[in-house]
């Protein structure tokens, strides 16, 4: 925790696939991105037998 708080790194980006402690969430240099939309789209594509790799073509 102190390593993140005192780091010279401007920002640490994490995803919301695992819960973060409130202490980590409160750090100003930690940003959490949600993956729910991407996971939902991947599940939809798998269910419809569509390409998942097409999601990353842009």
Automatic annotation (TrEMBL):
Transmembrane segments: none annotated. The gene is prs_3. It holds the Pfam family Pribosyl_synth. PANTHER family: RIBOSE-PHOSPHATE DIPHOSPHOKINASE FAMILY MEMBER, RIBOSE-PHOSPHATE PYROPHOSPHOKINASE 1, CHLOROPLASTIC. Its EC number is 2.7.6.1. Gene3D superfamilies: 3.40.50.2020. InterPro entries: PRTase-like, Rib-P_diPkinase. It is an enzyme of class 2 (transferase). Signal peptide: none annotated. GO terms for cellular component: cytoplasm; ribose phosphate diphosphokinase complex. One of its GO terms (molecular function) is magnesium ion binding. This is Ribose-phosphate pyrophosphokinase. Keywords: Kinase, Transferase. It comes from Leclercia adecarboxylata. GO terms for biological process: 5-phosphoribose 1-diphosphate biosynthetic process; purine nucleotide biosynthetic process.
């Amino acid at each position: 925790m102190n390593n993140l708080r005192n780091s010279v790194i401007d920002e640490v980006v994490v995803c919301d696939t695992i819960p973060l402690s409130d202490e980590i969430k409160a750090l100003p240099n930690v940003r959490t991105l949600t993956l729910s939309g991407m996971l939902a789209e991947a599940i939809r594509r798998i269910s419809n037998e569509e390409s998942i790799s097409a999601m990353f073509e842009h």
